[in-house]
Amino acid sequence: MPHLLSAHYGNLQTCGSVWVCPVCASKIASRRRTDDLTPGVENWTGQGNMVFLATFTMQHLAGDTCSEVLEAITNAHSEFWRFRAGRRIKQVYGIAGKVRSLEVTYGQNGWHWHYHVLLFVRDKLSLSQVEDMHQEMAEHWQYVVSRSGKFADSVHGFDLRHSDRQVVDYVSKYGSEGEGKIDTWTEAHELAMSTVKRSARGGLTPFQILGLSLAGEERAGQLFLEYVEAVKGKKQLHWSKGLRKAVGLLDEKTDEEIATEQEEHAYLLAQLDREHWRLIVENAARGELLKVASLGDQEALREFLSDFGINAYYPEV
How far apart are CA 212 and CA 289, in angstroms? Predict the structure, then answer.
């Protein structure tokens, strides 16, 4: 029996939605982090360049709809780079490309949308240059946000951090509520896992809202539907033109392609038919089945499935 680290299901129909499906979102986000963001950042910094993590957010009110806040920050972020000041910032500080990711939480003040943007900067900037870039970007962000009638303060509206895999500046709480577990997130985690990670600021992530809805909270269900409508047709992770080639990556796969991919070097432990799968679903045993399978013990898996009256096919491993 080979040493197994995890287990997953195969040959199931997938939706490929990074926004609204917890199963697909987890797989897509993890794969984009390990296959794209992490090697992309490592390749770029390995050539003597720098990567910065910029965060853009703006004022939002409890009465604003999810779509209204999303449209406002999307338009402001587009104007940020399109206006002369934004083009100057790119030129002066050698920003060769960007990877942007959208994230949202819901709290007492309503929907809180924000952009996380990786800035790939040519060469090394001095400390004074970094400080100047931070100030110029913060002031320019305040300006473009004000044009939409919104507000972004100098402290919370914009943040710029140097991303380094050895010294990770951006640390967020991650894990079960109440455990106080602190996990370190690299810049690649922060972008790719934005839809699935637990909020570090006390707000609810979309899938936490979905969980409350499944628990019977009617208001949570209404909020999740509002969110689903807002993100329809939106892209969660976006690479600027030519950047993937510059950091040595192949063409980008679609969310749907990633969701349907099977893990390489995976072993088939058991094969279930349609009726077997129906029994697992009806007994809410999908998660527990994966835990047992992750042990890599085919006999334990056989015993678990037999408790549900399932006589599956077990190939030699």
Answer: 23
Beta bridge partners of 140: none
- Of residues 105, 97, 134, 101, the one with CA closest to residue 115: 101
Residue with tokens 């040595």: 248
What are the backbone dihedrals phi and psi of residue 202, each rounded to the nearest 5 degrees, phi first? 90, -10
User: Rounded distance, CA 228 to CA 133, Å?
Assistant: 36
Q: Which CATH topology does 22-260 take?
A: Alpha-Beta Plaits (3.30.70)
**For the chain, what's the residue count?**
317
The identity of residue 53, as a single letter, is L
Contacts of 129 (CB under 8 A, 6+ apart): 93
Read off the pLDDT of each residue in 137-143 and give the average, rounded to a whole number. 97
From 120-124, 159-163, 297-301, the region with the lowest mean pLDDT: 159-163
Query: Which range among 3-12, 61-70, 148-157, 225-234 shows the weakest confidence by mean pLDDT?
Result: 3-12
**CATH 3.30.70.1130 placement within the chain:** 22-260
Contact indicator for 57, 113 with CB cutoff of 8 Å: yes
